[in-house]
Amino acid sequence: MEKLAVKTKGLLLICSLILISTVFCESDNSISAMEKSEKEGLYYAIQGFVGNWWNGSELFPDPCGWTPIQGVSCDLFDGFWYVTVLNIGKIQDNSLKCQPNAEFRRHVFELKHLQTLSFINCFNFPHQHPVFIETDNWDKLAGSLVSLEFRLNPGLIGQIPPSFGSLTNLQSLVLLENGLTGGLPANLGNLVSLKRIVLAGNKFSGQIPASLGGLTELLILDSSRNNLTGTLPLTFGGLTSLLKLDMSNNLLDGMLPNELGNLKNLTLLDLRNNRLSGGLTKSLEEMISLEEMALSNNPIGGNLMTIEWQNLQNLVSLDLSYMSLTGSVPESMTVLRRLRFLGLNHNNLSGNLSPKLAALPSLSALYMNGNNLTGKLEFSEWFYGKMGRRFGAWSNPNLCYPVELMSTGHVPFGVKPCQQGVTLLEANSNIKISSDEDSNQKYSILVSLGYSINVVDGSYWKVVLVKQIVIVLLMNYIL
């Protein structure tokens, strides 16, 4: 019986090994099913970027097998493996890193099912080894490519190829922080499937194509940090799906178009550091989803009172500094309960600040410095203690805070205490004050001597503390 049991166990072991061998063989056959042209195209394309030393010899049985290449993904089409993702550059520690003289090779366009292509921190030598984006052959990827990205490549120079306009299935185009120049091709408007277009941090110039306003599925449009000129296209009013619009740090001029009010889904509007003018368009109050609005460093001018700020209940950050704004701070801003940051500094604002601003539950930074605000600040000691230097009210010469707060140690930085002294002066009809400046100067002198002033029936009355002065003179004489 024991011998029979041993034989049975041995037979089961042999059967198990045969079964495992069969599974692995079948698995191996399925993994290795990559067309020769696809494999060669991938290898030649990679060698153009990382160097001819790379031959994929460590891969088994191929790039889509058990030891795949970092940055390369595959998928099955008609029973064969094809490359769908190719990421080149310093993405992870074991990613394919580019050689100094990296170059485009036509083989990348032979990857017929390629969906995602990215180059990150790959072309880094604009003077020694400048690289241009391949101008032809992009139409070969028109049927498959949905994401194209060039990020952090200072050595990538030249213009956007017009052939990009053939990539009609593209959903994401990212050209971020490269050395690209020239204008934006009008045929980018052909990319009607785009949901994201990021062109920030290059040296693009010229006007923004009006054709971009036809990208009705667009969610993110970022062309910040370039040298773009001209006005914001009126066609931007058609980008009704847009969530984020960032055109900051350019050379844009003209007025804010009324059509911006059509962007009901927009959460970010960033137009900082341009040359926009003409006042605040009233249609801004119709952008009801806005969470962040940044228009600072533009000579826009105008009055804050033209906007019904209470309509923008989702605002979290509002930066309107350095805009030559006039008038007073609207009471309607005091109902923006989600507001965390409010920057109105360095304008020409006047009038008093409403104490209701301090009651905003989310407010953590309030900058009003560099204006012509007047009167007494009616904020609490607790408010000043909470905000610290994040409450900016300095450089408002006619603004002051209650003198009783001095004893608490929580006072607004750079703001003077209000003066409240009252003293009668000796009547003297011959005294004349020639100007407010003289009056202020005399007031300062009298206060420094222990006097105070008050105006009674247009005359100055002076009370001299004779007893104290005599005592001081006697002490000086004795000593």
TrEMBL record:
Residues 165-376 form the Disease resistance R13L4/SHOC-2-like LRR domain. The keyword Cytoplasm does not apply. Pfam families: LRR_14. Keywords: Cell membrane, Glycoprotein, Kinase, Leucine-rich repeat, Membrane, Receptor, Repeat, Signal, Transferase, Transmembrane, Transmembrane helix. It comes from the Eukaryota. This is Leucine-rich repeat receptor-like protein kinase pepr2. It is a single-pass membrane protein. Its main location: membrane. It comes from Thalictrum thalictroides. Residues 1-25 form the signal peptide. One of its GO terms (molecular function) is kinase activity. One of its GO terms (cellular component) is plasma membrane. GO terms for biological process: response to other organism. It is found in: Cell membrane; Membrane.
